[in-house]
Amino acid sequence: MIKAAVSVLLVLAALSSAFGKYMPKTGKRIPQTLSRGWGDQLVWAQTYEEGLYWSRSRNKPLLVIFHLEDCPHSQALKKVFSEDNQIQKTLDDDFIVLNLVYETTDKHLSPDGQYVPRIIFVDPSMTVRADITGRYANRMYAYEPSDIKLLISNMQKAKKLLKSEL
Questions:
Q1: What is the CA radius of gyration of the chain?
Q2: Cα(39)–Cα(114) distance, integer angstroms
Q3: Where is the signal peptide, in residue numbers (predicted)?
Q4: How far is Cα 48 from Cα 165, in angstroms, rounded to an integer?
């Protein structure tokens, strides 16, 4: 009796965990090391240049995340970011994504300095969207775990502005 109850409990736990996480339209994808934990189900660009190429060719905005593996602020944002189904679905459907643990040579990606974590949007015309910012005046592109709703709003803004500019 106990074995049967444990078996049923394990099956229910497995089923509930399968339905709780965002699953892309194409089915479960093999986790990539490029995600670095920011969303294993997403297809990540390997370099900034590749991200720009995909953005232009697919006519989707590029979202660039700058972070460090050992930064507690980056880790906290990564946890909330990767667990938010709305963010993961929007990124999968409407964005090209890239996360970097190093700075690029493009100075446009650090308009107000080099700090982590920061999230920058780039449109398909390869223009850095300096107008889409977070809530901090001294770190304009920084987001904290409590800023997820603002990040979602900014993602929608990047999509809408892109559509209206074309």
A1: 18
A2: 23
A3: 1-20
A4: 23
Going from N- to C-terminal start, the domains of the chain cover: 41-159
41-159 belongs to which CATH class? alpha beta
Residues of the chain with pLDDT under 50: 15, 18, 166
Tallying the residues shown for the chain, one arrives at 166
Pick from 65, 76, 72: which is nearest to 155 by CA? 65
What is the 3-class SS of the chain, one letter each residue?
A: CHHHHHHHHHHHHHHHHHHHCCCCCCCCCCCCHHHCCCCCCCCECCCHHHHHHHHHHHCCCEEEEECCCCCHHHHHHHHHHHHCHHHHHHHHHHCEEEEECCCCCCHHHCCCCCCCCEEEEECCCCCECCCCCCCCCCCCCCCCHHHHHHHHHHHHHHHHHHHHHC
Give Cβ neighbours of residue 45 (< 8 Å, ≥ 6 apart): 34, 51, 54, 62, 96, 97, 98
Task: Say how far residue 96 (Cα) sits from the centre of its chain.
Answer: 9
Phi and psi (nearest 5°) for 40? -65, -20
Q: Which amino acid is at 151?
A: L
